[in-house]
Amino acid sequence: MNSFSRFGLRLHVFLIGLLSLPFFCIATHAQHLATPADPLANLRTGTLTVWESGRPEFLGWDVIHAGLRVDFPGLRVFFRLVQPQDLMSELARAGEQGGLPDVLFVDNWNQGGPLIAKPSAMEMMGRSRFSPSRGWWFLMRDGTNPAAGTAFLHWLEGDPHWTAPPFSKVGMTRADGEQSAAVAVRAVSGVTGELAGSPLLDPDAVHFTAANWGTLCGSIGKRTNPKLRFLAGNGRIAFASLTSEAKSAGGQAACGGLMNSFVLLRKRSGGWKVLLLMPSVSLPQAVSFGDNFNSLSLSVAKGISPAAPVLLAPHDGEPQTRFPKQDISWQQGSTRPAAYVVEVRVGQPGGADASYGSSMIYFADPAQYGDVVQMPMPFGVGQQPHRWRVWAVGKDGQIALSEWRTVNFTN
Known about the structure:
Blueprint: E1 12-13, H1 29-33, E2 47-53, H2 61-71, E3 76-82, H3 87-96, E4 103-106, H4 109-115, E5 121-124, E6 136-140, H5 146-157, H6 174-189, E7 212-214, E8 218-233, E9 237-250, E10 255-268, E11 271-281, H7 283-294, E12 310-313, E13 319-320, E14 327-331, E15 339-346, E16 359-364, E17 372-376, E18 385-393, E19 399-401, E20 405-409
Parallel strand pairs: 2-3, 2-4, 5-10, 13-20
Antiparallel strand pairs: 1-16, 4-6, 5-6, 7-8, 8-9, 9-10, 10-11, 12-14, 14-17, 15-16, 15-18, 18-19, 18-20
């Protein structure tokens, strides 16, 4: 479950598990959608009851509690540490007495497993921004104050003091900003279903079904209140991050929480289109992706469009080993671009095209190479097929893409 620093002299690899910075004076329908009511209102007064089952050092409650006191001085917090072997019996007793906790943290799946069968428990799918927090958070819907519990988990996942980086918007008009933001919001809102054939997608974009959260949670069932975190670029490409509230569907467990997405858009003759949609990344990952595009210092003047990279190895469908790592290579037949992006999709053994998920991206600095790029394969998450292609990104934001190839891993 579930980034990209500035270009240096090595390949940067990033995998695909709260306050927005306004873009100029955007006041569009998209911006309206991106500004929901205060999700933390229920923490400003009232009570919150928190239980922990497990080792105290795995949660770090003192640090979390200190943050709550600073952000919500009017909130009364009740905390209880419960021994793992007593958790289920204590929950049963508290339920009979009408005193269930609002949220519960467990650090061992021996306690977490039985909770997923309870309709009143919903697992938080995001990760806490506090360290160590090595475990799982659950919202107890029958708790004393479940609205405060929901707000608390949102607060755990998203820092209310977060501000967007000062990414460049030179060359991006107000209209570009409004239109690309609206498309990004619509695309993220529609990720719960099949995106194939969507008019929002660039003709070169991958088509995928609803992202899967894991074997227990199933797929994304609903995404609401998309909120724009940042939007930048020039008049040819735009990159953005959005956070929305998400719930699962079709799994063994009820799951929910905040889901952050990264979107790259390209301006075509028909307007702004989504070339890349990564539906579930952490906000720091999204910032890192944006940082790398921003580090190109995209120019306003239109230059010569980069040539599409020509893939050399491995051949399409060629078996490869993940251990030891094999090489991939491609050739750039004209002036080297400002950046290379390796895009990868992971599929299921024996699966059809629809079995491939959304993309992951990896970056490489062209300054390290000549006309031929040869590098260790930066992907490989299991003994299953992977599809990959390479982007050449020009200094002015123009993008040329290679063909797709498939790698079948044998270990």
